[in-house]
Each structure stands twice: as C-alpha cells, then as structure tokens.
Specification:
The chain is of the alpha+beta class. It has one domain: BirA Bifunctional Protein, domain 2. Helices cover 44% and strands 12% of the residues. The protein contains ten helices and five strands. A five-stranded antiparallel β-sheet has the order 1-2-3-5-4. Strand 2 and strand 3 form a beta hairpin. Helix 3 packs across helix 9, helix 4 crosses helix 5 and helix 5 runs antiparallel to helix 10. It starts with 11 loop residues before the first helix and ends with a helix.
Length: 231
C-alpha cells in the first residue's frame, strides 16, 4: 500500500472512490474488497488514530474510535430501504468524531468528508432535534455576545464558514426584527472548511485537519454549553 508515516492517505483513495462511482454494484465491490481495505478503510482507521490525541486536547468528550464497524468511520454501505436510489455503496469516505453524548441526544461533533473534487471538514450540529434547536436559539437570545464570540473569533473565521439550511420565516416565538434573526432562523448549526484533493494527499493533511479542528473549539464549546453538555 505504501502508506506514508505522515499521511495515511495515498492516491489509491481517490482511484477507488472514482472506480466505485462507475461500478456501484456488489459483484464489483466483492472483487475489489482488498483494494478497499488497503487504500480506503485501513488508511482511514490510521487517520482516526492519528487524530485521537488532538481531539483529546480539544475536548475529552469527543470520541475517536478506530473500529472497522461501529466506530468513527462510517459504513461504505448505503441504507437503501427508504430511498429510490438503490446503489448499494457510498462514493465518499465519511468519518465522524462524535461527542460522547451523541449516541443519545443531539450534540456537537466533527466530520471528515473525502470524495473526489468534494473534500471538506464539518463541525457543529446538522439538523438538531426540536428540543436541541430551541435550546440553541434560546441561548443566542439570552447570551448574544457569547454567540458572537463563538462565530467571530479570528481563528474560526480564518478556517470555517457557517453553512446549512435556514427557515424562510422567523421561528415561532422570535421577533422578526431581532438583530440576530438570521442566526435564529438556522435549522443547522454547522460550519465547513474545504480541501482540494491534492491537499488531502499532501503530507500536511493530518496536521492541517487537526489545526482546523482546534479552531472550531469555541463554536463546539458554545453549542455544548447551550445544550447543558460537558465539554
């Protein structure tokens, strides 16, 4: 496989992902399972292990689990039960570093998405449930300066951009003329930072990812505080 000591991902990562996008069926995957293990899954598990110490410094409540099943690495198999798209395999690598409370409630976390020409990191909460969403919005109203610090810090702004979907109208119970109404209308409290494919394969990628995760710490801490979670 030729894994480098500084970055476990090599060119085979994107070769495999492009190939499975063209050959998305079980028979092809079964014939190329060794390639998947060598070029995709094992490097991803190495990457997860490499991130563990940095995540511990960000928060001891973030998890980095290098298990093949049920850990931080998301399954390559798609859940097609309720989808019209019956292709059995994902064409990206997904890694989630979840808050330890994430298995029971909505909680802020970190995400890695690797796909040809679409590589990015994510932080925060995607589509939180009603109770969590109300708690976050209430915290914005009650502590607006704290919210502004969380999203306005120099390092956060340098590396991250807020994203996700928003309501077209103000949420119930919030005034349309509130000075932070655009933030209160958010349905997702997430931010993204992008990488070019060649950056993912560069020796500095694990260090760059860790640096950007560290820059997200105030944003994650603010969300955890809003939800009453340890961070």
């Amino acid at each position: 496989m030729g894994v480098r000591h500084d970055n476990p991902f090599g060119p085979g990562l994107f070769r495999f992902l492009r190939a499975i996008a063209r050959n998305n069926d079980k028979a092809w995957f079964d014939r190329h399972r060794d390639q998947y293990e060598d070029e995709v899954r094992e490097p991803a598990l190495v990457f997860i292990r490499m991130m563990a110490a940095d995540l511990e410094k960000i928060s001891p409540h973030l998890t980095a689990r290098d298990r093949k099943v049920g850990g931080s690495l998301m399954r390559i198999h798609r859940d097609v039960r309720f989808s019209r798209d019956k292709r059995p395999f994902k064409t990206n690598v997904g890694i989630q570093f979840r808050h330890e409370a994430g298995k029971d409630v909505h909680a802020p976390g970190l995400y890695v998405h690797l796909e040809p020409k679409r590589c990015f990191l994510g932080c925060g909460m995607w589509r939180p449930a009603s109770d969590a969403l109300k708690a976050v919005r209430r915290s914005i109203v009650e502590e607006p300066k704290s919210w502004k610090r969380a999203i306005g810090g120099k390092r956060f702004v340098e590396h991250w951009e807020l994203g996700g979907e928003s309501l077209t109208r103000p949420p119930r119970g919030f005034a349309a003329d509130h000075p932070l109404i655009e933030d209160l209308k958010r349905k997702d409290f997430i931010a993204f930072t992008e990488f070019a494919d060649q950056e993912v394969l560069a020796s500095a990628f694990p260090r760059s990812a860790a640096e950007r995760f560290r820059a997200a710490k105030p944003f994650l801490r603010w969300q955890a505080d809003a939800l009453g979670l340890l961070f």
